[in-house]
Design brief:
The complex is a heterodimer of chains A (427) and B (89). Chain A has 427 residues and is mainly alpha-helical. Chain A has one domain: Cytochrome c oxidase-like, subunit I domain (Cytochrome C Oxidase, Chain A, Up-down Bundle), CATH 1.20.210.10. Chain A has twelve helices and no strands. Chain A is globular, with a radius of gyration of 21 Å. In chain B, 24% of the residues lie in helices and 30% in strands. Chain B is built from two helices and five strands. In chain B, strands 1-2-3-5-4 form a five-stranded mixed beta sheet, with helices on one face. The termini of chain B are far apart. At the A-B interface, helix 6 and helix 10 of A face helix 1, helix 2 and strand 4 of B.
Chain lengths: 427, 89
């Protein structure tokens, strides 16, 4: 018998990265989360009418997109995909090295945008593109070597292709600031927004949800056919949005893209709702309240996107679309999932590293700091509400209040993360 | 004449009682199917010991077992199989 006599048997760590790898990505995301809301506060004067250009509002947007969303996606993707797809962990040093390049690069991009320095922005952008390209290679290797899970893998490929489009259009956009235009700015911007939010992050969120939501709810995996139909519609929406960005029948294609996207979202949310309803675990706590709010805001973002596509004469429609899409859907959804992944992985690592005969490792619930997460929940929803109100009322004061509330919530979230890591390290 | 019939492999997720506990075969199920099938058995059966026949080390299972106060032991298994003995200490 090869038993250890503990909760985690020998060999449990074979497909686990060292804890320091995923947790350094999560830790950086937690810090950038605070910085993002601070940037909202710094850019409050322009935030309600923000439609582009350098400044603290665009810095806040990229602190969320690159610093929180992509940072977490890299950490979670590098750890969860090998575990779920039966692959050994590989390229540990490269996974660590990407963090050392990516983290200061994101800080440079945000600073360059915030202070309006194209040189700092360009330097940060080059390093960011290099780091994300390296991640794309690792991610592609994981997808090629994966066994089973065709739905998750197909979403992964969609996210990967989207990431390449995002990197190309990002380079083109930065090129316009440093006098090297490679693509019409409006075209690059339209593709960048669609493929970053709905493509890279969106497809990754949809794909990983087909594992994570049943795993947390303790339910069977959703049906393959409807999940693939949702993916097909999502990819169709992205292609249509991409074509519209090049000025071909723009309005018609954008409306068709929103319609296809709405179909994809409807199927996905139906599958998620059915999964939660059938799950053995009914009480998923505040984390899944955030997830559900994120899903509502995803659907709402499509309505706002349609209003933008139809050129509905509403002040701040484009800004509202961005708020609903990035901090609304993606950030809210991700924070809900992250607050369940962190204690789960922390428990896994604490248990896998425990010596035989030692005391039992901490459970995920013992690693969850409830009070800070409750504070975060309240502050995050207040910040989102204030941000939407700021755009609708064109009020810098409300935008500043959103920044303060969001930063307070982000600090509380950081406290919950620090407590989980401290308890894991002390196990 | 030799008997060419092969033993029929158990259906994925099937469980059956034996002297050493309730066995469950989750080979062939995609994540998180094995996790759900095992926890469903543990939660429903109230049994003392569960023997899991798996095709990989079920890492996502261990935090859920810890949450329920169960422990896992690796036991000998044929090549290509990971066999675990789950029990409440």
């Amino acid at each position: 018998m090869t038993a250890t006599g503990g909760v985690f048997p020998a060999g449990a760590a074979t497909r686990l990265l060292p804890a320091s790898i995923p947790f350094r990505y999560f830790g950086a995301a937690v810090v950038f989360h605070v910085a993002a809301w601070a940037a909202v506060l710094a850019g409050a004067a322009d935030a309600p009418g923000f439609v582009g250009g350098l400044g603290w509002s665009v810095a806040a947007l990229h602190l969320v997109a690159l610093g929180v969303l992509a940072m977490t996606a890299i950490g979670a993707g590098l750890q969860l995909l090998p575990v779920a797809s039966r692959q050994p962990v590989r390229a540990v040093r490269i996974a660590a090295a990407i963090w050392w390049i990516y983290t200061p690069a994101v800080a440079a991009v945000a600073c360059g945008m915030g202070i309006g320095s194209p040189k700092v922005l360009a330097a940060g952008a080059v390093a960011t593109v290099a780091a994300l390209a390296a991640f794309a290679v690792l991610f592609a290797r994981n997808l090629v070597g994966a066994r089973g899970m065709p739905v998750v893998i197909a979403h992964g490929w969609g996210a990967l292709v989207s990431l390449l489009v995002v990197l190309a259009t990002a380079a083109a956009l930065v090129g316009t600031y440093v006098g090297v235009p490679a693509l019409d700015r409006a075209t690059a911007l339209a593709m960048h927004v669609a493929f970053a939010a709905y493509g890279f992050m969106g497809l990754l969120a949809f794909g990983l949800s087909y594992i994570l939501v049943p795993m947390f709810a303790l339910a069977d995996t959703p049906g393959r056919r409807p999940a693939m139909a949702s993916l097909g519609l999502a990819v169709t929406a992205l292609v249509l949005a991409g074509l519209a960005a090049f000025g071909v029948a723009t309005s018609v294609l954008r409306i068709a893209a929103v319609a296809a996207g709405a179909g994809a979202v409807a199927i996905h949310l139906w599958l998620m709702q059915a999964t939660l309803a059938a799950g053995m675990r009914k009480d998923l706590g505040l984390s899944f309240v955030l997830v559900r709010i994120g899903w509502v805001l995803l659907a709402t973002s499509l309505v706002a996107g349609l209003a933008v596509a139809l050129d509905v004469p509403v002040d701040g429609a484009a800004t509202l679309f961005g708020v609903l899409l990035v901090p609304g859907w993606l950030l809210t959804f991700l924070l809900g999932i992250l607050q369940r992944i962190v204690p789960f992985l922390a428990s896994l690592h604490a248990g896998a590293g425990a010596a035989p005969g030692k005391r039992r490792p901490p459970t995920p619930s013992a690693l969850t700091a409830g009070r800070p997460l409750t504070v975060h929940f309240t502050c995050h929803l207040a910040a989102l509400t204030l941000l939407v109100a700021a755009v609708l009322a064109q009020s810098p004061g409300l935008a500043a209040a959103a920044g303060v509330a969001g930063a307070a919530g982000a600090v509380a979230f950081a406290a919950a993360f620090a407590i989980a890591v401290r308890r894991m390290a002390g196990a | 004449m030799s008997d060419s019939r092969q033993p029929v492999p158990p259906a994925p997720g099937r469980s059956w009682p034996e002297a050493d506990g309730v066995h469950i075969d989750v080979r062939g199920l995609e994540p998180p199917g094995p996790l759900v099938a095992i926890l469903r058995l543990i939660d429903a059966a109230g049994t003392g010991t569960v023997i899991v026949h798996h095709d990989r080390d079920p890492q996502l299972l261990y935090p859920e077992l810890a949450e329920r106060g169960w422990a896992a032991e690796r036991v000998p298994a044929p090549d290509g199989e990971v066999r675990l003995k789950l029990r409440r200490p």
